[in-house]
Amino acid sequence: MFLKSKAVPVSDFDEAAEVSMQMHQIMIENNGIGLAAPQAGWSGRIVVVDKDILGIEDEVFINPEIVQIPQMWAAEQGL
Q: Long-range contacts of range 35-39, CB-CB < 8 Å, 24 or more positions apart?
């Protein structure tokens, strides 16, 4: 699947909370480890990550920005 448009910054945090809960459910139902809002049909900048991949509780990132990528996390999607 290719994303056709860039995700937009989130400004409605009530809606973002609702969307992130739906995304979390989608991720769990599909045995995923992470899900971006555009993959779930929403254009906002939200990412949900499963706790097992990071060794922490499940996380929701709203309007995330990548400022540095440690070498140990650099990998292609699907690996």
A: 36/7, 37/7, 38/3, 38/5, 38/7, 39/1, 39/3
pLDDT at 79 over 60: no
Question: Going by C-beta distance under 8 Å and a sequence separation of 6 or more, which residues neighbour residue 5?
Answer: 38, 43
**pLDDT above 90: residue 22:** yes
pLDDT band with cut points at 50, 70 and 90 for residue 67: confident
Tokens 């609702």 correspond to: 18
**Per-residue tokens: 23:** 């995304």
Give dist(CA 8, CA 35) in Å, integer. 16
